[in-house]
Amino acid sequence: MKIDPTARIADDVELGSEVNIGPGVIIEGPSSIGSGCTIQAHAYIGPYTTIGNHNTISFGAIIGHEPQDYAFQGEKSYTIIGNHNIIREYATIHRGTKPGSATRVGDHNFIMALSHMAHNSSLGNNVVVINGALIGGYVEVGDRALISGNCVIHQFCRVGRLAMMRGGARASRDVPPFCIVDWEHTVRALNLVGLRRAGFNQEQIRTLKAAFNLLFRQRVNLQMAMQQVEAEVPLTPEVAQLLEFIRQSKRGVAMGARSRDSGMA
Q: For residue 49, which of 31, 56, 150, 177 is within the disulfide window of CB 3.0 to 4.6 Å?
């Protein structure tokens, strides 16, 4: 264990083995830091924060600070970080706003510089959040999603598994799994590179393409398109997941490009 003498660590902070804490770090308690973590200079860890094992928290990052919410009245709420995450410089992750609630980050995520996770948001596993992306309150991001630089996700939205948001995209609707979106929650294509990297075989991809074309390439009522998928496309686990994601949407789902902007892929 290596702790710089200028670090300020509260008495009720639990530190795992082989923790490396740099100069000027502030860790408030009660909180816990798992084994093998590195917390670089001037990072801040707020109270009621649990950080798992083998995480790297870079210069000036802020984790577990109070939410930016007028409704917050100082209640006990939490930030829970999993294992093997990289949180780069000046990223901010705020704790939950309602009593007993939490902001959550899973395992093996890469949260890049100057990005923000608001209160009660959650990341799955193996998610990449690129510089300057803003994830609003109560947003849910599925496994292996990629949120590109300067993207903006409205509160209460969901981003599905293996979805990709291109740089500067904004979403106030749910981003469906396996898809690429850009501009204003506009679905452009299947995330073929992401699917192949995740180990999807050609048959899985072919079936998803068939479902995708029916759902997002024709300008028909989405409920009708879903019925067409169920009638014409094999209901593989991935197709079933895509349909269930749409059914569960409360904010509406991003739609395919209109004819006037279909050339922006």
A: 31
Average pLDDT taken over every residue of the chain: 95
The pLDDT-based confidence of 132 (bands split at 50, 70, 90) is very high
The 10s digit of each residue's pLDDT in 245-262 is 999 999 999 987 765 444
Residue in the block written with tokens 């210069």: 59
User: What does the pLDDT read at residue 241?
Assistant: 97
- Phi first, then psi, for residue 232 (nearest 5°) are -115, -15
Return the percentage of the chain with pLDDT > 90, whole number. 91
